[in-house]
From TrEMBL:
Domain of life: Eukaryota
GO cellular component: ATAC complex; nucleus
Region feature (Disordered): 299-328
Full protein name: KAT2A acetyltransferase
Ranges annotated as spanning the membrane: none
SMART domains assigned to the protein according to its UniProt record, in alphabetical order: BROMO (SM00297)
Gene3D superfamilies cross-referenced by the UniProt entry: 3.40.630.30, Bromodomain-like (1.20.920.10)
Keywords for this protein: Acyltransferase, Bromodomain, Transferase
Span of domain Bromo: 642-712
Any GO MF annotation of the entry: histone H3 acetyltransferase activity
Keyword Transferase found: yes
Amino acid sequence: QANDACKCNGWKNPNPPTAPRMDLQQPVANLSEPCRSCGHALADHVSHLENVSEEEINRLLGMVVDVENLFMSVHKEEDTDTKQVYFYLFKLLRKCILQMSQPVVEGSLGSPPFEKPNIEQGVLNFVQYKFSHLPPKERQTMYELSKMFLLCLNYWKLETPSQFRQRSQSDDVATYKVNYTRWLCYCHVPQSCDSLPRYETTHVFGRSLLKSIFTVTRRQLLEKFRVEKDKLVPEKRTLILTHFPKFLSMLEEEIYGENSPIWEADFTVPATEGGQLVSRPAAVSTVAVPATPLFSKKLSNSSSSANVDSSTPEPLPGNAGEKRKLPESLTLEDAKRIRVMGDIPMELVNEVMLTITDPAAMLGPETSLLSANAARDETARLEERRGIIEFHVIGNSLSQKSNKKILMWLVGLQNVFSHQLPRMPKEYITRLVFDPYVARMAATGAGLVWGAPFLTLCIAANRKHKTLALIKDGRVIGGICFRMFPTQGFTEIVFCAVTSNEQVKVKRGEAGGVQGAQLPSERSGFSKDIKVPKSRYLGYIKDYEGATLMECELNPRIPYTELSHIIKKQKEIIKKLIERKQAQIRKVYPGLTCFKEGVRQIPIESVPGIRESCSLAAEKGKELKDPDQLYNTLKNLLAQIKTHPSAWPFMEPVKKSEAPDYYEIIRFPIDLKTMTERLKNRYYVTKKLFIADLQRIITNCREYNPPDSDYCKCANTLEKFFYFKLKEGGLIDK
């Protein structure tokens, strides 16, 4: 503001509307209009925002919305304790808006997590403790019930401290009030206020809160399911009304039991028949009640309904009997054990990683000069990191006010495309670059008849060409004009060009587009081998005479902007590992003394170092020389393995819906379908690669499932079978 002595909290409209209505257009305030409180103009009130980024402005506007919502909550709330917390958060966000800072809850509440082990860990420990002896189908059912309970708890509305006081002993009320305040600040309010960081209730609270709320929550939860039982599908109805009450009763014993092991540090599952003893570290910490006030500032005063939230999540779907076994008895550390022959110990990999990422040890400090083996796009990456170049997706719009900078960039793109693609008509380039984006929905009679799919197509038809602009020093130096076809699963690249004086630096290959002009190079990932079915793009992409259609397939699992950097790092790791291996091989052995003692002849393998140096050559000599012969041999072997009765669990990749945390435990997933694809793509250039993948299937199964599970039994049988076939085919020594 112009006057630093001004204490006004914000500009107030001198002529506020008498009866504001959402459906009426409100008059726009003028920057010269004075504030109703202090008399300063609106421009003075917002002068400090002139150089603030758009992202920060949006964040502040989001906080304004949250402040308004909290203000309404303060006035509607009747419970005194809840009202105080709402009012504190209201003042906190308003202060952060004025100071343009991040909201941080102050006082003695502490920061999440508040207790270990948390509720989720305790409940999962309970499932292992009570049901690990059950068959896989019943054990899976108990696991689903536990996940459903945790999900409900995360969205459950807790009773207020005053309600808790009416049914509990006085010595528990202080502890519950602290936990209730923490729950409001970190879990409940952030569900509707995006400005505040949100945490799951079951992740940050432990046994203390669960003991306080379990009895009443259990009663409300079962009552809610009984009332809404007719809305549940038959399978879920049986699961919830029959098994869930018993599940909660058993859990209640462990929550209130004095000697329950599920809340102990180093919790272990008792060994069962064929089972194993597994430790799960879970340090226990108590929740202390702060003696000082909960907040650093005094809060003000009135009601939360004791009713629970109406949106109770349904239990997890699926047929429990057919699911893969979830990791009830394995920790993440167990999954990191090396089981496959040829695996490099993680300790060695970590040591090498420290070496290649340490500037003093290997790479040296970053400079403007690039190393001889730098990636092709390293220059562009460095320039983007330093803010020299920028990428923006832009397009023309008829429904929004034109942005002068966007229009200038569009003109620059038109010039770049016209200059670099001289065979393309300028009128055609202009029409596509300035193709308008009409932000409107089709509210026609046909739209109403055909419903949402038709509206989606109408919207898609209006979202036409856009351009990825490459900007350097405020001017356009290149771009890609494209049109997306979401319903067909592909995007058409119409123009792709970079100015001549920048092509050497960017190293993007020849300028050109998919249609016409010069063709994109294969080094850029484009190929004339079109894998997309013709029916998918026929009628969507214009077919020009003399044009060559090319395709670039993108894998969503590959971070292409970092791909060259990743490959470079992989090469450095491999190089360092080879150097270490060579250092071991280049061992100098003492000379032979046996000839001085009269020995005339010795076996060559008795010479120190001969066996070590020849082992690699001997292994290489066993490989099949003819690639086609190796391919056919492996193809026949894989076909026999896939038809084996015990191969059914390993035919396809594990689905996340069946085992949500499978890919957190298993670092290198593999299956017979993936092996078939690799074989078709001639990935298996040696038998060792093929055998390693087969063994990896077995190892992953043993990592994830207990030894007595059906999956491990299948893995053991299949392992014996394929090793028998490997010996029979001469791929390994008998």
